[in-house]
From TrEMBL:
Domain Aminotransferase class V residues, every copy: 5-348
Designated gene of the protein: serC
Enzyme class, broadest EC rank: transferase
EC numbers on record: 2.6.1.52
Region forming the signal peptide: none
Transmembrane segments: none
Cofactor(s) annotated in UniProt: pyridoxal 5'-phosphate
Subunit structure: Homodimer.
Keywords: Amino-acid biosynthesis, Aminotransferase, Cytoplasm, Pyridoxal phosphate, Pyridoxine biosynthesis, Serine biosynthesis, Transferase
GO molecular function: O-phospho-L-serine:2-oxoglutarate aminotransferase activity; pyridoxal phosphate binding
A matching Pfam family: Aminotran_5
Record protein name field: Phosphoserine aminotransferase
Amino acid sequence: MPERIYNFSAGPSTLPEEVLAQAAKDIVNFNNKGMGLIEMSHRSKDFIAVADECEANLRELMKIPANYKVLFLQGGASTQFAMIPMNLLGEGKSATYLNTGVWAKKAIKEAKLFGKVQVAYTSEESTFNHVPKDSDYTVDPASEYLYFVTNNTIYGTQFPAMPKCEKMLIADMSSDILSREFDITPFGIVYAGAQKNMGPAGVTVVIIREDLLDRSPENLPTMFKYKTHADNGSMFNTPPCFSIYVVGLVLKWLKKLGGVAAMEKINKEKAALLYNAIDSSDFYRGHAQPGSRSNMNITFNLPTPELEAQFIKEAAALGMDGLKGHRSVGGCRASIYNAFPKAGVEALVAFMKEFEKKNS
Ligand code: PMP
């Protein structure tokens, strides 16, 4: 097997090596049962124990109170763009959205299919290089909820603190869940696709306040009602067993490391190394404005697109993969989620200094 490289991919993204090694074993033979985890019934005792442990660890790590349900769903984070308004809006109902990037915009488009949408803020005219402060927008008092994206994967922006608002909050945390501590109690729903900070693609974790389960219109198809999944422990139909299992392994790894608070400290240190490298140079330019900078996705530009292409190519040759920015903003992006090692960030910083010396 080739040596592992530093994988800066925005998602699916790098996972802890010990998690991969364990999963590789369990795929062939789980719990010494003579069959692999992915061959087992989702109703088997062994798998139910996996799912229960995964949920319990998530509750512990995120301090999720008992009046919230944890659901393991399919269809990616993108299905939630529609499922949220489908369940919570309807005739005469409205919601407020903050447009901080492509993923927020897609959620706005879906919400418009089910109710009135107020877009209270947009940073589109500045290529989404910042997120708003609370004082930058007002939330329509008639709104059912305020929807926002905590971390904007493509632009490298992140809400430094959760918005303070009288309305219930709903957040897409696909690219920063479990990366920092926060109080979940002002939230009605928090959700995240697993493939950045939690595990492989295939499962979307939806944490929903219990009282919301009874708000869905009667005529929703069964699979699109949150209550269906809540009432059946996410086993109304076959769940994404393998993805749930790997998320469980990642959560155990995170607990061993000291939990979310410990992770947050490491994430801040890793991101600071890169932002210091950007700020101490005239060669590199950060895309996100200070004050809105993400600790998960660090976006930057070089003086020309040609130099950016060369930078990405030379970095790849040195075992640093996935540094090309999203096609909608160009430039470079280093995604350094929870499982990305600090040594990889140090290697990138060293390469950035070298590259600047040679090319400026
Ligand atoms: N929200 C955010 C913040 C994302 O970064 C992404 C994917 N990169 C999505 C939603 C969409 O996720 P999925 O592909 O699971 O639908």
